[in-house]
Structures are given as structure tokens and as C-alpha cells.
Amino acid sequence: MRTLCASTLIGEFFIIGFAGLVAMKDEDLSTGTVWAVSGTAMLLSVVLCGMITRPGGVQLGWLLQVGLIASGFVVPLMFALGLVFGALWWASVHFGRKIDAAKARFAAEAEAS
Length: 113
Description:
Layout: H1 2-23, H2 31-51, H3 57-70, H4 77-112
Helix pairs in contact: 1-2, 1-4, 2-3, 3-4
């Protein structure tokens, strides 16, 4: 699960950075505000890569997905990209857990042999 989720989070890191560049063109937002929010979200996505297997890591990842979708109120394209990355996050968690269970089962079978 860790590899799939981390891959999704690193992709989000870049998407958040690019969305920050687009948001800077909005005259109502200051550059400092845009980068404070974008930078925090980018940092969270990288930190979450190491927290995936810890308690609350997946839930924090879901919180990041909600934030990504909500950023569509500033950069409208982020509604679509947020939904895409939300689906990727779901798939990473869902199939990652299946892969982890299969690995554990194969390891147990190998020990039994």
C-alpha cells in the first residue's frame, strides 16, 4: 500500500505546485497567501508519504483529497483534478491493502513449506 499511496501523493505534490502558480494570477490573492497554503499542502503530501502505514495516515490522506477538491473554488480546474486524485487515492488504498494481504499470505505459505 505504501508504494501506491506514496506515488499518488508525489503526483499531488506537483499538481498542488502548478495550481499555486495558476492561483498567483488571481489579483485578489497575495503571493504570500497562495504559497503559504500551497506550500503547506505540498509539505503535507510529502510528509504523508512516510506516514501512510502509521495510524491516521490514510485518514490524513483523505483530508488532503478533500482540500484538493475544495481548492477548485480558487482554481476551477482543481475540482476535476481533485476528483481524479481522490479516485487514485481510493484505488491506492484499496488495492494496496489487497496487495499487502497477498504478500502476507505468500510469506506465511513460504514459512509453512
